[in-house]
Amino acid sequence: MTEEQPRQTEAENATLTREPEACSSEVEELQKAYDDLNDRFLRLAADFDNYQRRMARELETRTTFAIESFAVELLDVLDNFERATAADDASLREGLEQIKKLFTAILQRHEITPIECCNRPFDPRAHEAVAYVPADATEGTVIDEVIRGYCMKDKVIRCSKVVVSRGKEE
């Protein structure tokens, strides 16, 4: 052998001199391993699809039950409104006050709170200006609440519709 010819290792020599039967058995083993892995992959993909469908059904069920529970609580308020409208004028005001308290308690249980806005700076994330009028208050201050806004936990679910001061006109 000359220095310029590459030397073959024993492993390379063994590979080159293998018999065809040995190569075909290796191919069969590799094919079997491939088929096993492919089967595992397909089963895992099917399991994941089933999981996604199951989670979607569970989410829908939870949402439905949450809405149902909230609706049942609101039906108590409706019942009280019906009783109040059937009452005489003297007890009507008192009945309406009780309904308001009940309704407020239901909202608080669900962590729904009103947005305080009067005499505070206008905040476009929580307020929607319906008017911009001259007033004694400094410019940009909310001077009246037309429709109350609400937050659920820390998220605004309805903006307050407010009147904002333009400041004093001279």
Automatic annotation (TrEMBL):
**GO MF terms on file?**
adenyl-nucleotide exchange factor activity; protein homodimerization activity; protein-folding chaperone binding; unfolded protein binding
* One Pfam family named in its UniProt record: GrpE
Read off the InterPro entries from this record. GrpE, GrpE_CC, GrpE_head
Q: Which Gene3D superfamilies match?
A: 3.90.20.20, Head domain of nucleotide exchange factor GrpE
Q: Where is the composition biased (Basic and acidic residues)?
A: 1-10
Q: What is its main location?
A: cytoplasm
An example Gene Ontology biological process = protein folding
Cell compartments where the protein resides: Cytoplasm
A single Gene Ontology CC annotation of this entry is:
cytoplasm
Region Disordered, as annotated, extends over: 1-25
What is the superkingdom listed in this entry's lineage? Archaea
Per UniProt, the keywords (alphabetical) are: Chaperone, Cytoplasm, Stress response
Function comment: Participates actively in the response to hyperosmotic and heat shock by preventing the aggregation of stress-denatured proteins, in association with DnaK and GrpE. It is the nucleotide exchange factor for DnaK and may function as a thermosensor. Unfolded proteins bind initially to DnaJ; upon interaction with the DnaJ-bound protein, DnaK hydrolyzes its bound ATP, resulting in the formation of a stable complex. GrpE releases ADP from DnaK; ATP binding to DnaK triggers the release of the substrate protein, thus completing the reaction cycle.
Give the multimer and partner information. Answer: Homodimer.
Which family does this protein fall into? Belongs to the GrpE family.
Q: What is this protein called?
A: Protein GrpE
Please name the gene that encodes this protein: grpE
